[in-house]
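Notes from hallway chat w/ T.B., transcribed later so I don't forget. T.B. wanted the structure written out for a chain they're using in a teaching module, and asked if we could keep both sequence and structure tokens in one place. Agreed to drop them here.
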Amino acid sequence: MTLKKIPKYLLLKNGVVVDPFHNKTYKKDILIKNGKIFDIGKIEISESYDMIDCSDKVITHGFCDLHVHFREPGREDKETLETGSFAAMSGGFTRVCVMPNTNPPLDSPESINFINKKAENAPIHIHPIGAVSKGQDGKDITEMGLMHEEGAVAFSDDGLPIQDGAVMRIALEYAKLIDAPIINHAEDECLRDEGLMHEGTISTRLGLPGNPDLAESSMVNRDLELANYVGARIHIPHVSSAKALDLIEKMKKYKDDVTSEVTPHHLFFNHEDLITYDTNLKVGPPIRTENDRKSLIKGIKNGIIDCIATDHAPHTIEDKETTFDLASFGMIGLESCFGAVNKVLCNDSNMKLSDLIKTLTIKPRKVMGFDNDLFSVGKEAEITILDPNVKWIFQKENIKSRSINSPYIGKELIGRVLFTISKSKVYQNS
């Protein structure tokens, strides 16, 4: 890996430009001057230009991830804003939203300000998501308005779902006033109980407590109905089941501010992959059946699911190299994201590359209200250069996160990010 300051003039030559905002694909050069788009077209090589030969490569918008955990403050041994930024750039991401389940949680205007100040020197754009409730206890609502003024782009208690419907209603009403989405971890804790994986034939074979898809779908149904009643924005994170997807599809027919995301691992794996007791596949919500996986693929292809988010969740070796019941939930996913989803969606399921790129760029940006027109002259360069056809084996050496809890190690992926340009920095994968 190399991270360098962008030269005064950087020419991206001979690439295929995929512009998801204007829905155009064309072969043109892009000239960057002082970190900003200077010209797009047929550009002659100059001695004063540094150049990246993009022949047979795709140039597109920098990816945007709405759901990552960078663990700072409190668990810097797992990840920091700095190390998380390197992992993001390795995966082609120039903009991420960090979840509030830190220690202490991001539940005050001061904590939001801390993230923003700490992230100023990061090579990517980092946006904090504020907690819905104080201490993430699901009871007392935080100062959402003041946190929004400090830069909180959305609100969530993350892995601690808001169980009390009255609290959720109040949160949605406050969020409506500031036009920010609520992101509620969609699991009913009573139905989830002590479930460690999807409740089904495989959990029975392995002797592990199951987490039924009903735990997700019942909470999704409640949250959708509440959001519709209040007239607020709702974003459903890491959809894992066909049942939840059906509910989202029905609500979207008459409510246009319902959005959702799916993770690469819910598209790539099914519960049969847990037969080896790989603790890196222990996630919440759990990886479900092949039918659920195929339904999620269909959901992202037909636009019911809006975008892809990694739910990048770093953990120490001690957190994962233990018995399945004691292992922490979560996996990292930034570095492997494009190769995994490109393999599943484009290579195996005939999705157009341009449509996949939309789920990683303009669609997540739209959810948060970020600027989408990145290929206009004068805009700061947020660019990802990738090879969509290369086959490669994901290895520990490809991980730039401080943690290594990835189930993709040893897996063949298709498509790889080569360069990422963000905040006047150029990152190159080795």
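Follow-up for T.B.: Residues 95 and 125 are 5 Å apart (CA to CA). Might be a good example for the class.
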